[in-house]
Amino acid sequence: MPSFLIIEPEPLNGQKAGRGARGRNLELFLKRYFGRRSVSMIGLEDLAGKRSYSVDHLFLGIPSSITKNDLMKVSFERLHLFDYGDHEKVIWGHSDEGLLRPLAKTYLKPWIQKSWGDEFKWGALPIRRSGSLYLCVKASRFLQTGEAQRNIDATFLGNPVVGWQETYGGELKYTRIHWLEEVASCGRHSLSGGFFMRGREAEQFRANASRIMSPLFLNKGRVNFLSYFSLMAHAKTALCPPGNALWSYRHYESIYAGALPISSDFREADMLVPLPDDGMFHVGSGESVLPCLDEALKARKDNPNLATSNLESVEQYLTNGLYDRRKRLLLERFMMQIERS
User: Fold this and answer.
1) What's the longest Cα–Cα distance across the chain?
2) Are 87 and 111 in contact (CB under 8 A)?
3) Domain end residue (candidates: 124, 158, 191)
4) Mean pLDDT of the chain
5) What is the domain-level CATH number for residue 308?
6) Cβ atoms < 10 Å from Cβ of 290
């Protein structure tokens, strides 16, 4: 059985990531399939002691100030670099790129894109799975929401204060806000959800909102997961615009809720759990969301089993939204990424 060591990344630009983004998500995934004894996670400071390590796979979080002497404390067959950041490709920060690049062929991110080129053999990381999603999925299967109860054309619930912007008609706008404004303004489609309010910047968005958009800025700073999932369970489609990165948990959550995901163009991207090819609708950069929404609604009407096909596609790798050691296809997909190097 292979053995694994994960060395946590250090803060990038002084911003310390949460535990999951420092490698805990990867640790839990590996332990799920290989057991606790096969996986260890340490901080770089742990290499300062006398202990040495011998493993098959060393995962090193970037950025890292690891030195050649530090690496001599670890005997490894393969070195893989990783980060859970929302940025594309690599930000080396204070890492010794000259030391690490020749040693590592593989770089893992939450998602990958074909446009990133061949600088590394890019691979996809396991991402966090919410226990609330599992409970909602189990409850929804018991309640069995029927098509007649899906009386909303599109839904979105989330934070307006995110980093992703695109150019629409020569003007740089936040994609989340622009999509909802298009749907709300067209008058052809019913829309549920809106933006929950958290922080001064969100309040500024609301203060500058048009008459049509103003009701979509909710008087809530947080919404529980059940309410969020319920909106998607009663909608035909779910708007999945980017937040701070192209991928989103919303892609999977909408599929489990039975809504067809409408996403920024993901056709040249991939994740560890592949998103379905046919039951997902892609909006090009700077393009209107409305044609995609019309297409998704027509597809749902023409093919009532499309949402079920989406779920079956994802459930090849997961069980009710969670990693399952019985689903070997996911493990094979992950190991293929790191063993090909």
Assistant:
1) 68
2) no
3) 124
4) 93
5) 3.40.50.2000
6) 16
- Which residues are CB-contacts of 171 (< 8 A; sequence separation ≥ 6)? none
Rounded Cα gap, residues 271 and 274, in angstroms: 5
What are the pLDDT digits (tens) for 55-81?
A: 999 999 999 999 999 999 999 999 999
Tokens of 254: 């909408």
**Residue 143 burial (10 A CB sphere; 0-12, 13-18, 19+):** exposed
How many domains is the chain built from? 2
Give the contacts of 23 (CB within 8 A, at least 6 positions apart).
6, 7, 8, 9, 41, 59, 61, 82, 84
Q: 216 CB contacts (<8 Å, ≥6 apart)?
A: 180, 184, 191, 193, 194, 195, 209
The two structure tokens encoding residue 335 = 């190991």
Distance of CA 236 to the CA centre of its chain: 22
- Pair of tokens at residue 306: 């499309």
18: containing domain: 4-124
Q: Which pLDDT score, from 0 to 100, does residue 341 have?
A: 55
Taking only the tens place, the pLDDT of each residue in 288-321 is 999 999 999 999 999 999 999 999 999 999 999 9
Say if 332 falls within a structural domain: no
pLDDT tens, residue by residue, 146-185? 777 899 999 999 988 788 999 999 999 999 999 999 999 9
| 66 and 98 co-located in one domain | yes
